[in-house]
Amino acid sequence: MADLTTDFLGIKSPNPFWLASAPPTDKEYNVRRAFEAGWGGVVWKTLGAEGPPVVNVNGPRYGVIYGKDRTVLGINNIELITDRPLEVNLEEMARVKADYPDHALIASIMVPCEEEAWKAILPRVEETNADGIELNFGCPHGMAERGMGSAVGQVPEYIEMVTRWCKKYYDRPVIVKLTPNITDVRKPALAAKNGGADAVSLINTINSITSVDLDAMSPQPMIDGKGTHGGYCGPAVKPIAMNMVAEIARDPQTHGLPISGIGGVTTWRDAAEFMALGCGNVQVCTAAMTYGFKIVQEMKSGLSQWMDEKGYRSTSDFVGMAVPNVTDWQYLNLNYVTKARIDQDSCISCGRCYAACEDTSHQAIAMSDDRTFTVIDEECVACNLCVDVCPVEDCITMVELQPGAIDPRTGKEVQKEYANWTTHPNNPGAVAAE
Amino acid sequence: MTSPSTPGIVPGRLPADAIAENFDDLHAPLAPHEVQVAADRCYFCYDAPCVTACPTEIDIPLFIRQIATGTSEAAARTIFNQNILGGMCARVCPTETLCEEACVRELAEGKPVEIGRLQRHATDMLMARQGHPFTRAAPTGKRVAVVGAGPAGLSCAHRLAMKGHDVVLYDAKSKPGGLNEYGIAAYKSTDDFAAREAEWLMGIGGITYEGGMALGADLTIDALSESFDAVFLGVGLGGVNALGVAGDDKDGVRDAVDFIADLRQAKDLTTLPVGRNVVVIGGGMTAVDAAVQAKLLGAQNVTIAYRRTRTRMGASRYEQDLAASHGVQLLFDVQPVAVHGNGAAVEVELEYTVDHGKGLEGTGETIRIPADQVFRAIGQSLTLDGGLEMDGRKIRVTDAGRTSHAKVWAGGDCTSGEDLTVVAVAEGRDAAEDIHKVLMG
Ligand SMILES: Cc1cc2nc3c(=O)[nH]c(=O)nc-3n(C[C@H](O)[C@H](O)[C@H](O)COP(=O)(O)OP(=O)(O)OC[C@H]3O[C@@H](n4cnc5c(N)ncnc54)[C@H](O)[C@@H]3O)c2cc1C
Ligand SMILES: Cc1cc2nc3c(=O)[nH]c(=O)nc-3n(C[C@H](O)[C@H](O)[C@H](O)COP(=O)(O)O)c2cc1C
Ligand code: SF4
After folding, report:
1. C or N terminus of chain A, fewer CB within 10 Å?
2. How far apart are CA B206 and CA A68, in angstroms?
3. Which residues are CB-contacts of A346 (< 8 A; sequence separation ≥ 6)?
4. Do residues A413 and A404 make contact, with C-beta atoms less than 8 angstroms apart?
5. So which residues of A are the catalytic ones?
């Protein structure tokens, strides 16, 4: 059996599955149960400064997007950071850490952008014996209006400055949690690195309005007739999160900076994908909120089975393996030619591929009177849309044309050599291939 | 040419290809696309009712999620952790009265998640892809005798071997498997699955099978408890209740379980004789299995005669419908009073019954139906008498199978509780855990 133990920034945990800072990690009761259920670590629900805690709305705080059969695809929330006193949280963290020395416990912090505020809280966090801290520069609602959360995360100079304070007043690892509500995630990541951060974690939630109540004419969740934008998370945000992770992992300036991957991790496979893109571990919120703590059992058994099948002995064996294969569009091989193929035995004749291709693509699928669907190679540009909309797994596949074969669409022979846009004759800026 | 209407008890009523088709898998394995769709329907319920409804408490939501995420071997391991005969149970469990009845989607839509078929998918996958998935703990030096190699005995032996004990598994029959091998309907256990599963199960090592060893003849409880550290009895129910009516001994009258055992062991089903007019007396799973299989062999008319009302029938509504869909006639509220015929059975005489709350009474009104073959399926009984305390007609046990003898445990059909494969597996497993606890102090 593969060894799932992970070492992230010197912080050991029994597996790479941590619960992200959010309601699942809100208090001692939750965290103890989470560890018992098998989670490797937690990032405690974000702490605020000493004094009266923030207050949450008392109406609904979530909006939701469903797939078929009410599968939860995305959740949006208007919850703030912890609404419990700092003192209580710190005491609980210390107790839990003492009882679970082998599990990771990270304190998430969000205090005003003033050196004094950080200087005040950090020693107190250190006393809990937490394994590290995560700076919440991401929360997109409620806190940003007060000059915290994503208001800091959107200004690289602030990130660098605050990170520096933390490194100054705190000895253990500092993780900077990034907001996706920016244009280029590499800038805040670099700022964190320059400030001395040990790692970045991403993503926090995405600004969103999930739905509008058409009777009340108000965004949802609706509080007494009004709504506000919230933060979006869950499976729907995973592609956005993974792109941001990959951008940081492959940029020469931030390459090698440890990353904790967050955003829509729901199964072992999601986790493996984030890790292949360079994340040393992953954090999970929505999946636990949708299915309960037990969901981690599938993540662990699945990752372990896959690692065994692939011959990976520890998670570090495959972390970052996909990073070299993330490239820019202009370097993709234009001599790689594929065609869609429909397996008639598994085809159920729904015609969705036909609708997609005929109406919105390249008119490359033929339909007979008896509802047999076949690909017209002369027209197929290999866009893959038919594969995506087909309800049957592996019914339509993309088949590679071998070098020497004639592509019936272009009438040209498929070339063996790699050739990309930078050298293509149609490119006005092309440089001749050596 | 022999046909369904040929009089008497004769073989070859149907051509070989029809027989082959009739005895194929009752439920074909799910195709990959079906697996995905079926698995996606599970809600991953909290403290799921299906788990509570499973006598072996398999973590059903977890294994289905493992299937849904493309790790069927992990799913199989989740199943086998709780139920080492998960493959057979996937085929034979009356899921409609167990896990699938409890499924919240049965409540919501009348269509439960197909738990049984998903379980079959996962277990088949693991059994086909790799050898035995468990390893034994360090040897304990303890030896345990397990008598009876049915589901209870196999499950007990496996758990004991896994804990590091050495097991000798005795059975009166030459082949292991118990009713998995000799009793379960052929279309539920195709391709010699019972034998393959028993062999795979013993792949854990540490289990020595000794066939042809009968308790009462070759073995005694006293001798076994002398030479072993503990003894587990999983001898099932060997005897069959008699009809106790006139003509019970005529030719053509026999025990349904014997007919089924012959059928299960037949190399070529076209050589197995079956009547033209078959009457099965009883109302349980055995009655349904005998009736349906008689029909599948080509009997022209098959009738199940049950003495109480439909709702009291041991066979589930699903099993009843299965029988009806194969053309078996179901008669309720009738009890046999005589088998008529000159040497061989020709007719069964049945009397109508009523139950006014003071027990079943005959009304005096009778009917006669043609019957050249009559199967008794009115229940089996325990034949063992080893000086153990009894609970009615079964061995008395407390907790996890402890009998009145300090070194002897028992489980499965020979103890009280529902007579189901999955119950036998659970009891065998739990007894093994208890034996382990006692032996290791
Ligand atoms: C026809 C029929 C169909 C059934 N169909 C289903 C079904 O579809 N689903 C379901 O869940 N259940 C079904 N059952 C019930 C199920 O088969 C039993 O509950 C289950 O097999 C009990 O397991 P067991 O190990 O206790 O006993 P058994 O399976 O009866 O095994 C007992 C073993 O002990 C051996 N033995 C007996 N006496 C001695 C002795 N003196 N010395 C040594 N060995 C001995 C026997 O040879 C046998 O191998 C069916 C039963 C019958 C009869
Ligand atoms: C209700 C809710 C509250 C959250 N609160 C916090 C928080 O206090 N601090 C924080 O850093 N992130 C917070 N998050 C963001 C999550 O930690 C996580 O980054 C995000 O949900 C994406 O992961 P997911 O797709 O697995 O849910 C919250 C998310 C939700 C749904
Ligand atoms: S989950 Fe439901 S019951 Fe629980 S606090 Fe929220 S609204 Fe109330």
Report:
1. C
2. 50
3. A392, A394, A395, B33
4. yes
5. 139
Q: Could you give the CA distance from residue B255 to residue A366 in angstroms, rounded to a whole number?
A: 62
CATH topology of domain B241-377: FAD/NAD(P)-binding domain (3.50.50)
Domain limits, chain B: 32-129, 143-238+382-439, 241-377
Q: Which atom of ligand 2 is nearest to the CA of A177?
A: 11
B286 has a chain A CB within 8 A of its CB: no
- The residues, ordered by sequence, that sit 6+ positions from B162 with a Cβ below 8 Å of its Cβ are B134, B135, B136, B137, B204
Least confident of A125-129, A172-176, B67-71, B395-399: B395-399
Residue A191 contacts residue A197 (beta carbons within 8 Å): no
- Interval B257-264 mean pLDDT: 96
DSSP A407: E
Q: Which residue has the higher pLDDT, B146 or A142?
A: B146
Would the pLDDT of A139 be above 70?
A: no
**Number of the ligand 2 atom closest to the C-alpha atom of A205:** 20
Question: Count of residues for chain B?
Answer: 441
pLDDT value at B377 more than 60: yes
Size of interface A-B (CB pairs under 8 A): 44
What's the pTM? Answer: 0.93
Confirm or reject contact between B383 and chain A (CB < 8 A): no
Q: Report how far residue B287's alpha carbon sits from residue B315's, in angstroms, rounded to the nearest whole number.
A: 8
Report whether B435 contacts B163 (CB < 8 A): no
Q: Does domain B32-129 sit in CATH 3.30.70.3270?
A: no
Beta carbons of B32 and A393 less than 8 Å apart = yes
The listed CATH number (3.40.50.280, 3.50.50.60, 3.40.50.800, 3.40.50.880) that belongs to domain B143-238+382-439:
3.50.50.60
Domains in chain A, CATH or no CATH each: 6-325 (3.20.20.70), 329-423 (3.30.70.20)
Pocket of ligand 1 (CB under 6 A): B 92-94, 147-153, 170-173, 178-179, 183-184, 188, 214-216, 234-236, 238, 257, 260, 285-286, 289, 384, 412-414, 419-422, 424
**pLDDT confidence bin for B380, thresholds 50/70/90:** confident
Read off the pLDDT of residues A7-17 as tens digits, 9 standing for 90 and up.
999 999 999 99
Instruction: Tell me the ipTM for this assembly.
Output: 0.91
Q: Same fold for the domain at B32-129 and the one at B241-377?
A: no
Check residue B62 and give its pLDDT.
Answer: 98
Ligand 2 near A136 CB (within 6 A): yes
Q: How far is A392 from chain B (nearest CA, A)?
A: 6
Contact A87, A129 (CB under 8 A): no
Q: Report d(CA A290, CA A300) in Å as an integer.
A: 18
Element containing residue A340 per DSSP (H, E): strand A338-342
- The predicted-structure confidence for B78-114, as pLDDT tens digits, reads as follows 999 999 999 999 999 999 999 999 999 999 999 999 9
Assess contact for B192 and B182: CB atoms under 8 A.
Answer: no
